[in-house]
Amino acid sequence: MSWAAHDLEPYLFRAKFGARISLVFCLLGSYSPDVLTKWAVYGFGFTHHDAILSDPVQFHRGWPGAGFTHTPIYGAAVAGLIYLASRNKTWAVSYFIGALAHVLSDSLDSVGVMLLFPLSTWHLHFGAWEYVGEVGRAHDAVAYYTSLGGVWDAFWAIWLLYYWRMFTVTYFRAEIVPTDPFWDWMKRWTNETVMLTVYRTSAFFGYASIIGWYIWVLFVNDFHPHLDWSWGGPQWAPRQGPP
Amino acid sequence: MDEPEPRRDLRLPPVLYWLCVLAFAVALGVAAPALFLLGFWEMAPLVFVATWLAPKVARGPL
Predict the structure, then answer these.
(1) Residue A144 to residue B14: CA distance in whole angstroms
(2) Mean pLDDT for the stretch of residues A20-39
(3) Of chain B's two ends, which shows fewer C-beta atoms within 10 Å, N or C?
């Protein structure tokens, strides 16, 4: 699984494709595969794993289970519903691109995603880093940010720095608000401070979490606080393939 | 009579202001990762306050 990449990828798509992408709907698509499932994978608590599910991996990425949320067909189906409800092609396409980016990012871990579902339950998995969600939030954070997963997050964060001007008030007023009717709708209910908060929070969180997790994992935490950029790392993590 | 000296603008450059906000967020996250580093919604109140304060504390819009 990926962490801050899901927060940052939609901003890159907005920066590269301009008004053809609705940032809000791209973010919704990017978050949607995990929004109803990831809390159950981790169980309760942060440092101690109080399991909810007997087989979190099967639930999160498998079938039977909620693994269908990590498939292109799921993103396409929800995008279709968005189009039917709104008649806005940009919103639907943006949602689909966000969801697809999530699916492809998650194919980089050792469990992967059912790319061809419902035709097949075969998992596309590159195994660049180990899937460690089943051992809880804290150990997953250590595993992810000491492995190539953290590098994947950092890659998006560094690339997005090139487009830092997109976070300015000027850019928001001139390029974002006039090109997406979502912001017109929001303007009727609230003020610009709230709108800017909605616009910026995911990116701000992405940067704060990458830096914060790296510091916590390497200098505060004492559980395997070492970088392991080997393919399939970290090597201490239990091996977990597709369900 | 001497002209009164113009008051110095002590507000921060906007980039520096947001870097300070980011450093504060990182410090919160490192101190309590379970409260600040698990989801974007945990940072929303801080981003809201920082956005609201920006015109008062920073020299220009960012």
Answers:
(1) 33
(2) 96
(3) N
